């Protein structure tokens, strides 16, 4: 780890300004991602501005929305009874990821900002455009079993790993930020994470020194019937090989509305609007779910060893929808 | 023994448990000494080639740096004692010997600094220029060299041609890693020109021999301590580079140096279980009786030089396949494939865990082919003698293991047809396999000392042997308390110190079978000497009273276990039967093990508590081997893809099935040693993976022959399967 | 100066900002019961309590833990009286090499505190909630037994 200065943020504006002013400064929240990557030499900030004690740790709820502070711990969010009742997919996604210890430490903002687990990104000796722009992408010729089948580019095939972000993708979530120059932004979650294209070093649309202050979940009737389903190598404590966040609005056995997003297979949280559209008005049954799953993966591109993810993700979508449709209420 | 001894074979409390649950057990990396400096390493970024230059200028400027060692300035080290049995290193070359790179991650520089943070940062500033050369890191891309020793009996080729039923199948195992939870660690400290080393090792005497030779010292001037070791599973037999370099740096700096490998360094520089590709050819009568077994193994080794030096490491897969089943014609050939990877080593049940994966899998295929129950097929080919040497086993109860295991599992209710059991979305399958591990025993000595103290006596048992979590502390306490008829709290056990009576490395499930009888012998001597002070032959033995009468404050005796004589008439082997239930959700690629039953014959069990734990742990090791564990290297860039614990997946709590382990009681192997015990540390793993794969076949009718059985493999096999 | 409160004792330490809570405990306070198994949040051996909740000390910077109450394995026993979880681990032989054991115990204690109705914790739930603590020796079945014993 490169030596760095540690500064405790005094206010949101002050913290954002401090990072904004120093090109090599970064925010520190739960630390579970950044400390890991600093030890690997992947990140080497010269200064860390600690935002954990800023007033960003509350969950506020009313009829219209949930306002979730950026520094709310993932465990805190998962345990919240009203989140569980109104947005069950959020809780399920959180509990399917990390360990209890990591959920106690890591924050909601840190979760959606976490970096890829691509082994070439994590190895400072490997070519990786995400880590060192212009250095190349070793996955293109290397070991690609865990590489993305959706949203990849010739410059990057790194899977975006957050389970929570996959859930938020179907919830019309909004990310609120404070910029280093004092401005503020309201960013729809849909456009928050970027496709890698030829600038994979930028995972999100955030600018340097732009601090996520909170997330908003608008009240959404369909979210009450929502579900997260994840397949991984190990029975727990493991990243997704494929996962799906789904929501269904059903009326007398028919789908009025549906939401589907994929995790573990794409370079960003992957909303499947065509698949959702295909379900509207259909009977909530296996054939409809299969057709939707085919549409969700229609654009998937397999490489040498990751083709199984396409088939697996199809089954995951079908499974997630089937389990959800079978739920009472 | 069990009929006359009140304690042996019963459950005792693990005697070191209290200090382990309170955090007081001191492992090597826990040692704190005044002036301790900290090491970090620079690993090679290339897999093959030469180091052209190591630029340490920036690193030297970094805060707290005390010393940087490279092959240019490491200084002389003596020849290492490989090959004479006194000690082992992973590479006959000492570390930082020259500019040659054999694998990615090989240590090219060592940085020592005041703090671990400073050392790690400075290591990242060392700049190395390389001249890369072509490399091979995939066993399927490498050329094999045939080993000359080909064990055979009968005429395999002829039998294979003539047999009514034949099986010819390829099984594979990946590189897997022992991956103990405690990273390899050494603290080296020079005291008045003598070397004291706290090490995470399976073998303090091996360390001592290597270090003494390296530094030109007599053995007595090197002391190695390892009272607690955080698991090993074969990976701490060798005296590794970080141990030697810690001692070099400590001498140079005249300060103690702590050298702890990072997890990525453990996974890339410490020898793994070699990858294997195994072809099994079986010939059988229609009733399942084996006529021929041919076993062709390719396994990876380190460099071509090891092959040229006629000392390549090979995974000894045929050790078990040649002895296990009655079969008149047998042949094993072995090719080694040099790769640019760290030299492989031994991992829990080397040879058995890999060889039985192939053989037991092939037998399940033979059972299907012949329409026989897999258990009946094993029974039919059972051998009560070592099938290769023909020596009868002194004590062999495999049939009882099969029968009791089958009963506990409910095997008789198994419908032979695949896809015959379903629960919701999961197909259920049952499989079984034979477990086996040879009885090993090595020369050992143990000192037992009785001290007169207020209210009685206290006993101290001491040997250089090491408890890796295996239960040796407890086993020795049980044996001695039993032999001297004393309560357990009057016994202290001291282990893992070269100053204690010599013991072999902990390996091959040998240690209890080696040192427990030696402890018993020491107790017998003590008893004899003290009982001479009885006033009448029927006077009860009160050791305190007898010591007082003898006018002694203390008394001690050393007991030994001898080397096994050449030309033993009997063979000694442990066996078991393992039964497994899996649930398979094919479209999700999901295999979950839900139930495991194992019944074992390990001779006389010394302590039931730690033996049970060993067997449970073995089963879970097998679950990891079967479902999760593999190390893959990118063939283009040589990147070790699974170099951390999020990539190299060990089973976690949620992977654990219900496990029922049992052993046969009252089956002491009395000609093996005075207690009749064989080891139980490794046998638990040996049949698990093939039983799981057979259960998967039973569940869904798909045969998987490549470990581990991951979702991508299952989905690929289903896609190729004619069923769906 | 970094002020840390560990097992109820206050300490003022001169720490490099890079020092993790784990290294501060082990190298600066001599509390070596907390183990470093991976140093990257992937094994659970370094689990400690921060304000009563279980966290991984290898990913926590010590300098960021000021004002919080840190609990380690060394702080569980009251004199000779072991914590019930420690006793249960001994009674169930829920350990072998012992290296993951402090982390397992700290995790298990916090895990039981996380749930309101302990009796509803079945085996599947306990296993899932303990999955962040790896044990290479495979003591898992006995760890589960020990936790069950304390749960009731």
TrEMBL record, chain A:
<dbReference type="InterPro" id="IPR016169">
    <property type="entry name" value="FAD-bd_PCMH_sub2"/>
</dbReference>
<feature type="domain" description="FAD-binding PCMH-type">
    <location>
        <begin position="1"/>
        <end position="222"/>
    </location>
</feature>
<dbReference type="Pfam" id="PF00941">
    <property type="entry name" value="FAD_binding_5"/>
</dbReference>
<keyword id="KW-0285">Flavoprotein</keyword>
<dbReference type="InterPro" id="IPR036318">
    <property type="entry name" value="FAD-bd_PCMH-like_sf"/>
</dbReference>
<dbReference type="InterPro" id="IPR016167">
    <property type="entry name" value="FAD-bd_PCMH_sub1"/>
</dbReference>
<protein>
    <submittedName>
        <fullName>Xanthine dehydrogenase family protein subunit M</fullName>
    </submittedName>
</protein>
<dbReference type="InterPro" id="IPR005107">
    <property type="entry name" value="CO_DH_flav_C"/>
</dbReference>
<dbReference type="InterPro" id="IPR051312">
    <property type="entry name" value="Diverse_Substr_Oxidored"/>
</dbReference>
<dbReference type="InterPro" id="IPR002346">
    <property type="entry name" value="Mopterin_DH_FAD-bd"/>
</dbReference>
<keyword id="KW-0274">FAD</keyword>
<dbReference type="Pfam" id="PF03450">
    <property type="entry name" value="CO_deh_flav_C"/>
</dbReference>
<dbReference type="InterPro" id="IPR036683">
    <property type="entry name" value="CO_DH_flav_C_dom_sf"/>
</dbReference>
<dbReference type="InterPro" id="IPR016166">
    <property type="entry name" value="FAD-bd_PCMH"/>
</dbReference>
Automatic annotation (TrEMBL), chain B:
<dbReference type="Pfam" id="PF02738">
    <property type="entry name" value="MoCoBD_1"/>
</dbReference>
<dbReference type="InterPro" id="IPR000674">
    <property type="entry name" value="Ald_Oxase/Xan_DH_a/b"/>
</dbReference>
<dbReference type="InterPro" id="IPR008274">
    <property type="entry name" value="AldOxase/xan_DH_MoCoBD1"/>
</dbReference>
<keyword id="KW-0560">Oxidoreductase</keyword>
<dbReference type="Pfam" id="PF20256">
    <property type="entry name" value="MoCoBD_2"/>
</dbReference>
<dbReference type="InterPro" id="IPR046867">
    <property type="entry name" value="AldOxase/xan_DH_MoCoBD2"/>
</dbReference>
<dbReference type="InterPro" id="IPR037165">
    <property type="entry name" value="AldOxase/xan_DH_Mopterin-bd_sf"/>
</dbReference>
<keyword id="KW-0500">Molybdenum</keyword>
<feature type="region of interest" description="Disordered">
    <location>
        <begin position="76"/>
        <end position="95"/>
    </location>
</feature>
<feature type="domain" description="Aldehyde oxidase/xanthine dehydrogenase a/b hammerhead">
    <location>
        <begin position="22"/>
        <end position="134"/>
    </location>
</feature>
<dbReference type="Pfam" id="PF01315">
    <property type="entry name" value="Ald_Xan_dh_C"/>
</dbReference>
<dbReference type="InterPro" id="IPR016208">
    <property type="entry name" value="Ald_Oxase/xanthine_DH-like"/>
</dbReference>
<dbReference type="InterPro" id="IPR036856">
    <property type="entry name" value="Ald_Oxase/Xan_DH_a/b_sf"/>
</dbReference>
<protein>
    <submittedName>
        <fullName>Xanthine dehydrogenase family protein molybdopterin-binding subunit</fullName>
    </submittedName>
</protein>
UniProtKB/TrEMBL annotation, chain C:
<protein>
    <submittedName>
        <fullName>(2Fe-2S)-binding protein</fullName>
    </submittedName>
</protein>
<feature type="domain" description="2Fe-2S ferredoxin-type">
    <location>
        <begin position="1"/>
        <end position="76"/>
    </location>
</feature>
<dbReference type="InterPro" id="IPR036884">
    <property type="entry name" value="2Fe-2S-bd_dom_sf"/>
</dbReference>
<dbReference type="Pfam" id="PF01799">
    <property type="entry name" value="Fer2_2"/>
</dbReference>
<dbReference type="InterPro" id="IPR012675">
    <property type="entry name" value="Beta-grasp_dom_sf"/>
</dbReference>
<keyword id="KW-0560">Oxidoreductase</keyword>
<dbReference type="InterPro" id="IPR001041">
    <property type="entry name" value="2Fe-2S_ferredoxin-type"/>
</dbReference>
<dbReference type="Pfam" id="PF00111">
    <property type="entry name" value="Fer2"/>
</dbReference>
<dbReference type="InterPro" id="IPR002888">
    <property type="entry name" value="2Fe-2S-bd"/>
</dbReference>
<keyword id="KW-0408">Iron</keyword>
<keyword id="KW-0479">Metal-binding</keyword>
<dbReference type="InterPro" id="IPR036010">
    <property type="entry name" value="2Fe-2S_ferredoxin-like_sf"/>
</dbReference>
<dbReference type="InterPro" id="IPR052914">
    <property type="entry name" value="Aldehyde_Oxdr_Iron-Sulfur"/>
</dbReference>
<dbReference type="InterPro" id="IPR006058">
    <property type="entry name" value="2Fe2S_fd_BS"/>
</dbReference>
């Amino acid at each position: 780890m490169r030596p760095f200065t540690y500064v405790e943020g005094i206010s949101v504006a002050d913290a954002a300004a401090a990072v904004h002013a120093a090109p090599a400064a970064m925010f520190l929240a739960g630390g579970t991602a950044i400390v890991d990557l600093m030890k690997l030499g992947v990140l080497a900030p010269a200064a860390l501005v600690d935002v954990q004690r800023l007033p960003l740790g509350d969950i506020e709820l009313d009829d219209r929305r949930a306002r979730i502070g950026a520094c709310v711990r993932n465990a805190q969010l998962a345990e919240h009874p009203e989140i569980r009742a109104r947005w069950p997919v959020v809780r399920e996604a959180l509990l399917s990821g990390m360990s209890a210890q990591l959920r106690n430490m890591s924050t909601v903002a840190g979760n959606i900002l976490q970096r890829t687990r691509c082994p070439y990104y994590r190895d400072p000796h490997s070519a990786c455009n995400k880590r060192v722009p212009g250095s190349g992408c070793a996955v293109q010729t290397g070991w690609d079993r865990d590489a993305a089948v959706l949203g990849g580019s010739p410059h990057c095939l790194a899977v975006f790993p957050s389970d929570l972000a996959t859930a938020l993708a179907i919830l019309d979530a909004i990310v609120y930020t404070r910029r280093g120059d004092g401005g503020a932004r309201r960013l729809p979650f849909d456009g928050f994470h970027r496709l890698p294209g030829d600038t994979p070093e930028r995972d999100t649309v955030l600018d340097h020194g732009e601090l996520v202050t909170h997330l908003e979940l608008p009240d959404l009737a369909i979210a009450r019937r929502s579900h997260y389903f994840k397949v991984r190598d190990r029975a727990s404590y493991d990243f997704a090989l494929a996962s799906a966040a789904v929501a269904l609005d059903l009326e007398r056995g028919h789908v009025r509305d549906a939401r589907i997003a994929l995790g573990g297979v794409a370079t960003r949280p992957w909303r499947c609007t065509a698949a959702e559209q295909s379900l509207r008005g259909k009977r909530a049954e296996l054939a409809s779910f299969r057709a939707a799953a085919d549409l969700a993966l229609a654009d998937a591109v397999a490489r040498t060893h990751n083709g199984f993810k396409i088939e697996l993700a199809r089954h995951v979508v079908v499974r997630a929808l089937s389990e959800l449709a079978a739920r009472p209420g | 023994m069990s009929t006359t001894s009140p304690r042996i074979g019963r459950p005792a409390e693990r005697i070191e448990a209290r200090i382990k649950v309170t955090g007081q057990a001191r492992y090597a990396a826990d040692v704190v000494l005044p002036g301790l400096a900290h090491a970090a390493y620079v690993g090679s970024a290339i897999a093959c080639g030469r180091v052209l230059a190591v630029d340490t200028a920036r690193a030297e400027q970094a805060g707290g740096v005390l010393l940087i060692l490279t092959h240019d300035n490491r200084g002389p080290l003596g020849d290492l004692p490989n090959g004479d049995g006194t000690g082992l290193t992973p590479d006959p070359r000492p570390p930082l010997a020259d500019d040659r790179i054999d694998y990615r991650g090989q240590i090219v520089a060592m940085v020592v600094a005041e703090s671990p943070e400073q050392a790690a940062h400075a290591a990242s500033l060392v700049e190395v220029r390389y001249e890369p050369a072509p490399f091979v890191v995939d066993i399927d891309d490498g050329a094999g060299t045939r080993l000359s020793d080909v064990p055979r009996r009968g005429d395999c080729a002829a039998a294979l041609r003539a047999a009514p039923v034949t099986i010819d199948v390829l099984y594979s195992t990946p590189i897997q890693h022992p991956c103990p939870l405690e990273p390899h660690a050494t603290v080296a400290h020079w005291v008045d020109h003598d070397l004291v080393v706290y090490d995470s090792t399976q073998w303090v005497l091996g360390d001592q021999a290597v270090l003494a030779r390296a530094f030109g010292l007599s053995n007595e001037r090197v002391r190695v301590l390892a009272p607690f070791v955080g698991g090993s599973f074969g990976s701490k037999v060798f005296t590794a580079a970080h141990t030697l370099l810690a001692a070099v740096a400590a001498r140079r700096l005249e300060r103690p140096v702590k050298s702890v490998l990072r997890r990525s360094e453990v996974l890339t520089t410490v020898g793994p279980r070699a990858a294997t590709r195994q072809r099994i050819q079986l010939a059988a009568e229609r009733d399942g009786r084996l006529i021929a077994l041919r076993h062709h193994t390719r396994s990876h080794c380190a460099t071509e030089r090891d092959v040229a030096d006629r000392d390549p490491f090979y995974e000894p897969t045929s050790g078990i396949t040649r002895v296990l089943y009655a079969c008149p014609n047998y042949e094993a050939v072995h090719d080694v494939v040099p790769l640019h990877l760290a030299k492989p080593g031994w991992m829990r049940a080397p040879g058995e865990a890999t060889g039985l994966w192939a053989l037991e899998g092939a037998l399940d295929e033979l059972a299907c082919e012949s329409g026989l129950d897999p258990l009946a097929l094993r029974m039919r080919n059972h051998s009560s003698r070592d099938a290769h040497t023909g020596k009868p086993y002194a004590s062999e109860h495999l049939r009882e293991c099969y029968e009791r295991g089958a009963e506990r599992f409910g095997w008789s209710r198994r419908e032979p047809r695949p896809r015959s059991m379903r629960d919701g979305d999961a197909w259920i399958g049952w499989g079984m396999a034979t477990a086996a591990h040879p009885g090993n025993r090595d020369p050992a000595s143990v000192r037992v000392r009785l001290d007169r103290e207020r209210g009685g006596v206290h006993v101290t048992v001491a040997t250089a042997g090491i408890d890796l979590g295996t239960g040796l502390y407890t086993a020795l306490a049980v044996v001695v308390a039993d032999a001297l008829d004393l309560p357990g709290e009057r016994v202290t056990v001291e282990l893992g110190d070269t100053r204690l009576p010599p013991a072999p490395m902990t390996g091959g499930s040998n240690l209890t079978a080696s040192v427990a009888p030696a402890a018993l012998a020491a107790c017998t001597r003590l008893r004899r000497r003290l009982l001479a002070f009885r006033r009448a032959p029927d006077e009860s033995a009160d050791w305190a009273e007898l010591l007082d009468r003898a006018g002694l404050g203390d008394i001690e005796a050393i007991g030994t276990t001898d080397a096994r004589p050449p030309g033993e008439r009997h063979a000694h082997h442990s066996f078991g039967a393992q039964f497994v239930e899996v649930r398979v959700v094919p479209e999700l690629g999901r295999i979950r093990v839900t139930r495991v039953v194992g019944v074992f014959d390990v001779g006389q069990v010394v302590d039931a508590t730690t033996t049970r734990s060993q067997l449970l742990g073995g089963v879970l090791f097998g679950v990891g081997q079967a479902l999760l564990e593999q190390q893959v290297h990118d063939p283009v860039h040589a990147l070790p893809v699974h170099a951390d614990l999020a990539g190299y997946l060990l089973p976690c709590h949620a992977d654990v099935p219900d496990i029922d382990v049992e052993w046969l009681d009252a089956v002491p192997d009395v000609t093996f040693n005075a207690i009749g015990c064989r080891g139980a540390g490794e046998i638990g793993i040996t049949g698990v993976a093939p039983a799981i794969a057979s259960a998967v076949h039973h569940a869904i009718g798909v045969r998987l022959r490549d470990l581990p059985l991951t979702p991508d493999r299952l989905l690929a096999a289903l896609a190729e399967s004619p069923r769906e | 100066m970094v002020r840390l409160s560990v097992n109820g004792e206050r300490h003022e330490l001169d720490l490099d900002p890079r020092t993790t809570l784990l290294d501060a405990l082990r190298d600066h306070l001599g509390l070596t019961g907390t183990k470093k198994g991976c140093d990257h949040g992937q094994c659970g051996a370094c689990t400690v309590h921060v304000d009563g909740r279980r966290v991984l000390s290898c990913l926590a910077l010590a300098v960021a833990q000021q004002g919080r109450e840190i609990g380690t394995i060394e702080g569980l026993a009251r004199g000779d009286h072991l914590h019930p979880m420690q006793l249960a681990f001994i009674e169930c032989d829920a350990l072998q090499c012992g290296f993951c054991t402090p982390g397992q115990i700290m995790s298990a204690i916090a895990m039981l505190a996380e749930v309101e109705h302990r009796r509803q914790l079945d085996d599947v739930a306990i296993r899932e909630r303990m999955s962040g603590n790896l044990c290479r020796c495979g003591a898992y079945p006995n760890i589960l037994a020990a936790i069950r014993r304390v749960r009731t």
